[in-house]
Amino acid sequence: xxxxIPQRPLPSKEALKQFYMHKTLTEIPKPAAVLDLAIIKRHCxxxxxxxxxxxxxxxxxxxxxxxSHPLSKKKKKKRTHRRNPHxxxxxxxxxxxxxxxxxxxxxxxxxxxxxxxxASTVLEIESLVPLLREFQSKGRKVNILYGIPLVPSQVxxxxxxxxxxxxxxxxxxxxxxxxxxxxxTFSRIAGFAAGVFLKVDCGYHRAGLPPxxxxxxxxxxxxxxxxxxGAGRLVGIYSHSSLSYGGRNRGDALRHLRGEVEAxxxxxxxxxxxxxxxxxxxxxxxxxxxVVAAEAVAEGDDAELEELRKFxxxxxxxxxxxxxxxxxxxxxxxxxxxxxxxxxxxGVRERFFDEVGAYVVAETCSVYNDGEREYPEALVAVGTxxxxxxxxxSYKGWGVVGPWGLPTTPQRDRLYIDRISQEHSILRxxxxxxxxxxxxxxxxxxxxxxxxxxxxxxxYGWYLVVDSSSxxxxxxxxxVWVRWLGW
Length: 487
Fold this sequence. Notes:
GO terms for molecular function: D-serine ammonia-lyase activity. The chain is an alpha/beta fold. The protein is built from 14 helices and 17 strands.
């Protein structure tokens, strides 16, 4: 069975490091995507502490970063625990796994006995296999969820990834009865059952079934038959709502979190008669604004924290009498972006450049300060193909320029991308002060913070890593992380 699919070729990590290491951001070719390791570590450590304080599970979404070395074509040796009829797995090794999966490592920490991820492409899952096997070798239980409803072209690749990791390692998402039949192929290739999460639609309407309409087309009876054949096993129910991105404060985000949990509990209550009670079911909920809001609550020590902890640890499952464990999931939180900052889920933080750990560096092409236009403007050499074109509710532009290299200006007045084309953008002051000149010179490098880091990152083959904990200006490249590109 040939499951290797062509992927876009990238330079090796070694070649990239040889070129970029120890250069400054003014010396490198631009535009370039940059990560600040100090900010990312802070966010990851804070999230892990929050999960511990709340006493709930956590599933890290490999979302914004997708970082690892490009896959080689070496093949794994047969694992002794597998019952795999295709023992020559095409899953490749990663000779540089130690450093290039650093962000995925930071998301799960070093102490939790359980490692849970969710990823939306099979390539991400395949690429994480070496790291997951390393975790297993240290006695840590691993599970990774394919985070969109199952499609047939991905089944064999998922099964081969599972075969490398063993039973209970890979789960799939189901929201339609016709997806059930694909799991026969999964179990035949992997040699064991796939874990199953049922997707609940809590109002966002991207995927999933309404809490009171989960049994579409006899879904539960088909799932029961699947379990009898050993091809699948229900693990839990899963909800993700990006409605919280429309919130403007911590209270909004927490209301969305509570609403997601309650929708999942309603599904359990509505189908109590057909859901299994011989196991603990996972209720997996969340999005970055909700989890960041929970993080802010966990930093306190008051009645609000106790109420949230009790709500998550002792959920009211109604007629369903089985055991339930709430699990939070999030993906953008290590990096954040201007969309995330606009939610104020973690409180109002005006110094966005201290919180957002991803940005693009670009060069100034030209400056128009001398009355050529209605407002002073500058042209920079990055556009939609380097920034994306994602809107942000808190302002009308496509990215915000950080203060690095600029003279001090009132915090409320910022340079931002006012107009954007394919390969270039126009900067303007938010204040639209016709007398206020743009303080840039031709050739000057600027840091532009994206509205949506996940989309912006996808424009680049690798990230340049800086570290503001040892380099306050965060200008020297200390590492290169190669992205996973493809599906």
